[in-house]
Amino acid sequence: MKYNFDEIIDRKHTSCMNTDGFRQYIFHADETLKFPYTDDEFIRMWIADMEFAAPDCITDAIRQRLDRKIFGYTRIFGDEYYNTFLSWTKKLYDWTFPKENLYTSHGVIPALYELTGYICGPKDKVLIMTPSYAYFKYAAEHNEVEYVCSDLLNQKNDGYYEIDFEDFRGKAEDPAVKLFIFCNPHNPSGRIWSEEELHRVAEICFENGVMIISDEIHCDLIRTGCTHTPLAKLYPDSDQIITCMAPSKTFNTAGLQFSNIIIPNEKVRKCWLKWHNFDENPLSLAGALGAYQGGYDWLMELRKYLDANFAFVQDYLASHLLEAVFRIPEATYLGWVDIGAYVEEGENLPLLFAEGAGVLLEGGNMFVQNSDTYIRLNVACPRSVLEEGMRRICSLLTERRKQARKNCKTK
Ligand SMILES: Cc1ncc(COP(=O)(O)O)c(C/N=C2\CONC2=O)c1O
Question: What pLDDT, on the 0 to 100 scale, is given for residue 407?
């Protein structure tokens, strides 16, 4: 491999959420919350950023911008950024769109908050599929509008979620539902929706006048052999599909807060043009250009490294946690594992693993609903870290199982 994904990088004192934000984000606690592990001892498998160095094409581009010495107000002018990003979507997805539809935002979440406000009125509702990335719910709450959940089906209880189209249609038919925030590919299940599923979702929304925001932030992070289809690619003439993509998930630059928002709808564009803050961080812009101009080979190697990490997780669970339900996700670097055979419904799973194994992870009701006994494992870390994390997780659950059996015998 040309890139060293095995490198252990010290992130202490970099103000990163991953090391310093978990008490507040996962446990809603302050620094006084103590665990039987020091912060350094934790294996961190929670927040969706990677433990890998961003590629040189990004850091070189940022260094070059630093050498220009002045960092004044910055916006995107000319065609360079559009042409660069369009080359990326053409190369990876054979998808292009007009320049006037491309905007940028200081992250996909800020865009979801902003767009929900432009699309929904006070009595309108936002439709999401669950389990869901919690910020889809927060986008509705931030705008003080209701959200409606359509639970995905896990019919074989094998973690392979499918859309409950009957339920989805029923909820989309509610005249108050004006917006569907679609996760494509899906966090946390890792599903890449098929073209058939994409068409069915879109047709139901079109029939019911529901605008779609297709959040595709995970689209570059797919398993070898899988293919992502941008929803808007299937409907080049539709103005009902807003697409969100970003270099941040792909290249581990979430802190640079730079994302791509493709808005084909004139009414929404008018609101965006009127109210959006178009200022950009010059270093973030430089990094995004560097990523899309030079990051393809790094991404291809990253995909192979993640493929191998997921294969390890699958093998390790098959031999150490036989009743866990896991399938390698088609996309994302997030493993979605049903440990219902080892825990009770409603257990605080993040607290269980933080206290009992020194592993930071997300799970259970952190994904709005329909996810109770699941844990989500970020496998975008050096293999040595992943191996220790899996060892601790499986050891905790098997020890608990042994203790439970012992307790039963002594009763
Ligand atoms: C579907 C989805 N949309 C948007 C974002 C965030 O976009 P940003 O504002 O950073 O551009 C994330 C990050 N997901 C995370 C971040 O930590 N844990 C997660 O599941 C995500 O999974």
Answer: 84
Q: What pLDDT does residue 201 have?
A: 98
Pocket of ligand 1 (CB under 6 A): 47-48, 107-109, 133, 183, 187, 215, 217, 246, 248, 254, 259
Distance, in Å, from the CA atom of 228 to the CA atom of 248, rounded to the nearest integer, reads 17
Please report the pLDDT score of residue 336 as a whole number. 97
Determine how many CB atoms are found less than 10 A away from the CB of residue 139: 28
Indicate whether this complex's ipTM tops 0.85.
Answer: yes
pLDDT at 13: 94
Cα of 49 from ligand 1 centre, angstroms: 9
Report the residue among 112, 180, 187 best suited for mutation to probe ligand 1: largest number of ligand atoms under 8 A from its CB: 187
Domain layout of the chain by residue ranges: 17-50+297-410, 69-294
CA–CA separation, 85 and 102 (whole Å): 9
What pLDDT sits at residue 408? Answer: 80
Q: Does domain 69-294 have CATH number 3.40.640.10?
A: yes
Return averaged pLDDT per consecutive 10 residues of the chain, 411 residues in all: 94 96 96 96 98 98 98 98 98 98 98 98 98 98 98 91 98 98 98 98 98 98 98 98 98 98 98 98 98 98 98 98 97 97 94 98 94 96 98 97 84 72
Q: Which residues, in sequence order, are CB contacts of 60 under 8 Å at separation 6+?
A: 290
Could you please state the CATH topology (level 3) that the domain comprising 17-50+297-410 is classified under.
Answer: Aspartate Aminotransferase, domain 1 (3.90.1150)
The per-residue DSSP string of 289-305 comes to: HHHHHH-HHHHHHHHHH
Nearest partner of 255 among 5, 13, 14, judged by Cα = 14
Which residue in 31, 78, 44, 55 sits closest to 292, CA to CA? 55
Going from the C-alpha of 37 to that of each of 16, 42, 165, 358, the distances in angstroms are 19, 7, 45, 6
With beta carbons less than 8 A apart as the criterion, state whether 343 and 364 touch: no
Task: Please give the distance, rounded to the nearest whole angstrom, from the Cα atom of residue 68 to the centre of ligand 1.
Answer: 31
Whether the pTM exceeds 0.95: the reply is: yes
C-alpha span between 184 and 231 (Å, rounded): 8
* Residue 143 near residue 113 (C-beta atoms within 8 A): yes
3-state secondary structure of 211: strand
